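# nightly structure sweep
# worker-07 picked up a monomer target from the shared queue
# config: single-sequence mode, recycle default, output format = structure tokens
# input follows
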Amino acid sequence: MAPELTDQPFSYGLTARILVVDDEPRLLNTLASLLRDRGYEVTEAHGGEKACALADTQHFDLALLDLRMPDVDGFDVMAHLTNVQPDCGVIVVSGESSFSAVSRALRRGALDYIRKPFDPEELLATVEGVIGKQSLLKAHENVQMRLEKSEALHRYIVNSSPDIVFMLDDDGHFCFVNSKVESLLGYQPSELCGRHFRHILDDRDVTRGSYALKGPNITADNPRTLEVRLKTRGSRRATRHFEITAFPVDPQTWPHTGATQGGGSGKLARYYGTARDVTERKEAEAFINFQAYHDLLTRLPNRALFKDRLELAITHARRSGQKLAVMFLDLDRFKVINDTLGHAMGDRLLQAVTHRLEKCIRKGDTLSRFGGDEFTLLLPSIHNHEDARQIAKKLINSLRAPFQLGDHEVFVGVSIGIAIHPEAGENMDQLIQNADIAMYHVKAKGKDGYRFYSDSMNINTANRLNLERDLRLALERDELRVFYQPQVCSTTNRVVGLEALVRWQHPERGLLYPRDFLPLAEETKLIGLLSERVLDQACQDVGRWIRSGHPDLRLAVNLSPIQVEHPRFVETLMQRVEAHNFPAGNLEIEITENVIMNDLEQISQKLRELASKGVRIAIDDFGTGYSSLNYLHRLPIHTLKVDQSFVKAIRSGEDGACIVNAIVAMAHGLKLEIVAEGVETDEQLEYLRGLGCHQVQGFFYGPARPAADICKSLGQTPARAASF
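# output follows
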């Protein structure tokens, strides 16, 4: 409430006639009853229209008005009273508390302003005071008293405003500022008055703020509105954002030139306005914008922001004739860690990986989280492939050291595909897709490396989508076929084992070999389901042959890295074997060295569990991977398979044969069985026999064949290749 302008109470109001106006019947009755209990003569008006009608026929000393009323609001009633009863005083009783509404009511002649919900005693005191003043005004100078009352109320409202209210002179110096500036910015009004307003502008907004008020089109109906940052007093508090609304002052309506209360400078005011603190809104907008373009876990740009920057970089590269590189990064073994240790640890690992990767890139590069454990990296303005190669090597090396997650020490690698603009793609989608394709070629070759995209990797997008669709249908329609390649004793020509190999009987393209669809199966995560189908069929076929008179026949199956790395790999494999009543001792699983070395600790534990159940372990393509011999005596390895590339090198006088010699000798020394793949000629077979390699497989004994052909052959004792 504004302070009273008189010191003594008045009793004249006991006979005053009061008009009470509100569109809420309950509030209207309550207010009327309160006034009647004090002896006032009260007339009730339900709504503004009724009030105007009563004012035309009855005389009132005072009107208590609500502002918000339908059809005819409080401002309209005030205007009507001014015309028909100019000596009727007005008190506003309203829930409307905005600065503009209060200011407008006071300008229209309101003697006081009471906010709903009101205190009855306060309201009665206000009514009594206003009626008393009216009596004095009638006895003295009515206009002067109302002006003083209005000025006092204005001063109270201005200093109680939630916004900073200010006045500036023609040079931009403060000539008035309300007390709100102290709580919002820490300044005393007195220390700002007389100083230029740029004193509190943030340095970044000084120029824009200084010219804001110089526009020729600023009027009362067209105020200048802008958002600026204002400095808080001292350096310990943060800069805050404000929305400034400034109006010009008309000298004819504001002729005041004396000292202004509240720390005014006494100069002629040229502008007045408000400054509303919008810091929370700006922070919310900034956070929403950050959410839209960043990954909240790693704080990296997301896919949308990465694509925006890539589009811009492509445009710049075209203009300048420069190259740029897009890298697609996929973490190796992340899913295993995530499934084993939980998503919380997985999130911590992603954050730690991000921290290391960011240390490898240049200022101006963009590393983004594309989704899951996939990242993309934009390298703008590179000179050649070597620039991208060096970055890729840094990224791979940065992740070699183990990560400490609580009590767990984990290892994670990264497979990187690289696409160079313009040769690997002219537009954004091509570059990202081709980098993705190159990355999957790294995965197929054993992970933890990098490759540049080349045209030889290209699979027509439409054909690739069709092939993926057909592969999914093949699993539903049972189009996959299991062929078997015999593993033969080189001295007796007896079949000792069968390697199960998958084929796809495509309804249109005929019989497809693994190279035609297994990379796609790996990429689309269908490899797990596909391998399960092969294992089921192989266990049925070979199990039947074992039970029909070949109890020592061995089944060799290849397993994908995705299967082996799964936390429930051992449990799932044994469940399938037992479901088909297949003897575990006749099963040999083939895995590559790279799968073992990717996560030696976890894989070792799984292999020991399988070995304890009788399952044999074979290292496939031995000598083409890490070739770290340390694991051979630490793990339950039963068989080494010599890669066919070494077998092909067996020629008289060729050095390649030395590798075969070494592998066979090492296998004998470690008491491991050895199988040579890709044997095609008598020369190769005789050389291997001479080394003591007694198990071979290859076209010398025939290609992989369907189960029906193998079944017939097993009924005979093969003399040579003709049987297979």
